């Protein structure tokens, strides 16, 4: 599963959420105060895994 973070303009939230639901996208909301640390943690995991994969080749 791929995780992405998106910013939705306030006036279009319901419309975007409905479209995502139609596409089968699983939506999870994060508190903005935690967002930077979550993003940094995910970023570090990604590049750590990528480095391990490169070493194993």
Short note summarizing the structure:
The protein has helices spanning 13-22, 32-56. The chain is mainly α.
Q: What's the arrangement of secondary structure elements?
A:
Blueprint: H1 13-22, H2 32-56
Flag low-confidence runs: none
Q: Report the principal-axis shape.
A: elongated
Tell me the β content.
under 5%
Series of secondary-structure elements, N-terminal to C-terminal: HH
Structural class per helix/strand content?
Answer: mainly alpha
Classify the helix fraction into a percent range. 55-70%
* Number of helices, counting only DSSP H or I runs of 4 residues or more: 2
What is the radius of gyration computed over CA atoms, rounded to a whole number of angstroms? Answer: 15 Å
Please report the distance between the alpha carbons of the first and last residues.
Answer: 23 Å
Average pLDDT taken over every residue: 80
Largest sheet: none
| Total beta strand runs | 0
Describe the protein's architecture and organization.
Helices cover 61% and strands 0% of the residues. The protein is elongated and about 45 Å long. With 57 residues, it is mostly helical. The protein has two helices and no strands.
Question: Features of this protein?
Answer:
single chain, mainly alpha, 57 residues
């Amino acid at each position: 599963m791929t995780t992405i973070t998106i910013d939705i303009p306030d006036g279009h939230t319901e419309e975007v959420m409905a479209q995502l639901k139609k596409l089968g996208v699983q939506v999870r909301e994060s508190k903005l105060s935690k967002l930077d640390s979550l993003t940094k943690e995910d970023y570090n995991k990604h590049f750590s895994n990528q480095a391990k994969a490169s070493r194993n080749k």
